[in-house]
Specification:
The protein has 13 helices and 15 strands. It is α/β, with parallel strands linked by helices. Helix 6 links the parallel strand 6 and strand 7. It is globular, with a radius of gyration of 22 Å.
């Protein structure tokens, strides 16, 4: 019986089987809300392969202006945007079909998931047509308020429009305390909820049931999971492959790098005089397999772009929350450690030259927080 259940429309252009940290978050939110006893969830997406694979998920075609396929070029430097795109191809090509599909359906809440801001615009239009429906925005990347856009020519206009929309929202979800501090003066603190990118219960169960991968026991095996784009310093990372720790030579493992990144990293290693035999590459792997790698390494490497200060509103790599649950023995450069202190309770366990070993004192799962959030609606 659905008599007393709150009806929620979840708008997310992106959805599994796409991959990435943002998709994991979207899937976890979908799964938790779908199983909440007080919620009846409908979801719309542009990902065709999803149709029929998930309960109450409707594929809605993007009529025109197809999205470009992402390239695999190597970008170790991060830049700032010159202009913010608010009305993108998704807005022009997908929005009309979504509105046409849901306009005559009534919901208590419409939940818009970023980073595709078109989701928010569609949800906002829906609430203008259905005045009793409340808007929830998961505003993970801050869009106009994102520090990467600080020099964008149209920043002020975009922020003004976003502020107008977010003021109308019933709840706005962000993923760091710093994001809340940045948005609070514009839309008020009371409506902002901080829900970090914690691992879901489903992923934790999968992780706990996995066997470890066996690596060379005579080596100290440090793993980096993910791509090496957006400002990571490859030379700084490669220093580890020339070191010893706990009486063992270090092997540095890369899980999730593409072929171009592997080639580039090896060239840098040769130039630095580091033996490439100490570097291991595994390419792209599934979500489940990445968790298995995380669980199996002696330590896990986390490097955040030195210019991406969390206190300025930058997000936190989602892999950190996976690292904490999989193997809470994390190594980073000092800059990354200092960056994390603004949002985490961290204990240093050891130091090695320019690197810090630490553990994060937090074992919260996403389900606990999101279920409470949903129960308070």
């Amino acid at each position: 019986m659905n008599v007393n259940k709150k009806k929620i429309l979840f708008i997310t252009k992106n959805f599994p089987p796409e991959i990435g940290g943002g998709i994991r978050r979207i899937e976890a939110v979908y799964d938790i809300l779908r199983h909440h006893p007080g919620i009846k969830l409908d979801t719309v997406t542009n990902v065709k392969d999803t149709a029929g694979s998930y309960e109450n998920v409707k594929f809605i075609r993007q009529l025109i202006f197809k999205d470009k396929t992402k390239d695999s070029s190597v970008r170790f430097k991060s830049g700032r945007a010159d202009k913010i795109k608010l009305f993108d191809k998704a807005f022009a090509g997908w929005m009309p079909n979504v509105i046409r599909s849901v306009i005559f359906k009534k919901y208590d809440y419409v939940f818009a998931s970023t980073p595709t801001f078109t989701n928010v615009l569609i949800a906002y239009i829906y609430t203008l047509l259905h005045r009793k429906c409340r808007l929830i925005v998961e505003y993970r990347d801050l869009n106009g308020f994102n520090p990467v856009n600080v020099n964008a020519a149209n920043k002020d206009k975009i922020c003004a429009l976003e502020t107008k929309i977010l003021k109308k929202a019933y709840k706005v979800i962000v993923t760091t305390e710093s994001m809340k501090k940045i948005l609070s003066p514009h839309i008020g603190a009371k409506k902002i909820s901080v829900i970090k990118n914690h691992m879901s219960t489903a992923d934790k169960k999968t992780l706990d049931n996995m066997d470890n991968i066996e690596f060379q026991k005579e080596k100290y095996n440090i793993g980096y999971v993910g791509t090496l784009n957006t400002g990571r310093d490859p030379e700084g990372i490669l220093k580890l492959a020339g070191m010893e720790y706990a009486g063992k030579n270090i092997n540095l493992h890369f899980v999730g790098t593409n072929a171009k990144e592997e080639e580039f990293i090896k060239l840098i290693a040769v130039r630095m005089g580091i033996c490439v035999d100490n570097l291991k590459f595994y390419g792209f792997v599934s979500r489940e397999e990445s968790l298995r790698y995380m669980k199996s390494f002696d330590a896990l490497l986390l490097i955040i772009n030195k210019q991406a200060a969390i206190s300025d509103g930058y997000g936190i790599p989602g892999k950190l929350y996976d690292y904490v649950q999989a193997n809470n023995n994390i190594i980073s450069d000092i800059a990354t450690y200092d960056n994390l202190k603004s949002d985490f309770d961290i204990t240093i366990t050891d130091k090695k030259e320019d690197f810090v070993f630490f553990k994060v004192n937090n074992d919260v799962l996403l389900d606990d927080i999101l279920n409470k959030f949903a129960g308070d609606l």
